[in-house]
Predict the structure.
Amino acid sequence: MLGLVAPVFRQYWLRILVGCLSLLSVDLLQLLIPRVLKRGVDALAAGTSSPHALLGLAGIILLVALCVNCLRFVWRLMIIGFSRIMERIIRDRIFAHILKMDALFFEKHTTGDVMAHVSNDLSAVQMASGMGLIAAMDASFMTFAAMGFMLKINVLLTLLALLPMPFLAVCTRVLSARLHQRFASVQEQFSLMTEFTRSTLISVRLIKAYTMEKFRTREFDALGRKYVRSNLRVAAIQGLMFPIATLTGNIGMLFVLIFGGRLVIQSRISMGDFVAFISYLYMMIWPMMAIGWVANLVQRGLTSLRRIHTLLTSGSSLPDTASETKADPSFSLRFLSFSYPSSTAPVLRDITLEIGPGIHGVAGRTGSGKSSLCKVLARLYPVDDGQLFFGGLDVNGISLNSVRSAIGYVGQEPIVFSDSIRANIALGRPEASREEIEAAARSAAIHEDILTLPAGYDTLIGERGVKLSGGQRQRLALARALLCDRPILLVDDGLSAVDVATEHEIFAGLRNQLQKKTVVIVSNRVKLLSMTDHILILEEGRIVSDGTHDRLVQENSFYRTMYDKQMHQEDFQVTS
């Protein structure tokens, strides 16, 4: 787990060293002030002091304070700046890791949980590696340094002052263990609340349509109350740590006042030594209090680091090798069976199929496995060895990038970003020119729609494309795939929200262009399927029939029924 942060410490060791030396210099300078006070008090007690001498001592204290402030700025810049650099590096690593994960990962981890890792958890790690590191080093050095000066003044008085320390150590150990458990519960509650908020915001129109605002508010309030209760349980531990540390220091101070005062009366130590001793003891009270704070920061940081480590060590179930290939854009399926991890029943059963250049249609009833076939071809889910081949090579023996970089994918639910239309279309080719983007939009029959928007291609389409209709989002996704101009195109019912006439118009215009590619179109619209070269009919995950449009109309009852119904509807619309 510490391997996540150790490389960053090694990379920025010089920055950390400068910060630590500055911090230790601050502590050393602070330790000089009681010595200066001792000289002044002893001189006053002996009657040998003068205004000029006291002014000189005041000037020394002022100079020390100035140096302390300058050095304090340096260590804050170095060490806290380092903690922010570490935060950025780990955040980048989490983000890169998430992008490599397969679909199974996102079935196990909610978006809210992932967001909690890169926000709350990472913030706790940053605090532990920044202020936690500073406080731990400062408290340790000040404790031993002040203790050394106190021992030099009087050993017995120092032992009396430190007598309550074992009590503080035992309390800190017990409370830190409980703090770790309770903070883990806080992070889990934060993940749940974040995921609830995210899912509510993206479905706000549905919630309004069903008048569920009050219900969702009550649910959010319940999650918030659980989160507050978890935080209060953490605060109860934190609330004990600081008073216990303060009580320990004050008990030590009580012993010093009682027994140290007697030593002054008995002239066994000077008044200046007594004042310096109390000053050093006050310096130790901060480390005593810092023990609880540092324990809190460290436990939070370790808990969060463990959660981040668990996330980063979760591997993808999709095998990925370094073997790159530029194989022919074709697929071979040999007795391929596939089932989702959450289900025991296979959704694809013993499919043997060759998919090469040309336009291939896929039809079937709901749940027959059409979308699952597209997801498997797009390498979104793992398959067994020897079942799926790309360009004659087993997909498990070549890199994911080799397969995916050859595929343009248009899913049932188009994914668009809260950005401009231009940026959404150019997602796969950010360097594309304006002319190329507009050409792709024309091919997808969305260019005219874009021109009617206030800023044209520079229009921001809002969260999840809220400013566009369902059909416009689908055509935008198709334009994105066409712009990439990849040798394989998978369209998983990607124009279902577009009317039949527009869909037919789009693919009629693209037919010659698509004929040179390997195209798989999932649809139950006969007019579109009639334009394909070859049609597959799926039923319960199996290929039950295949052939041309004319052949299936004659031989397959499902396809013939679908054909008769859609043709009848079209005739009815024409006559009416």
Q: What stands out?
A: The mean pLDDT is 83.
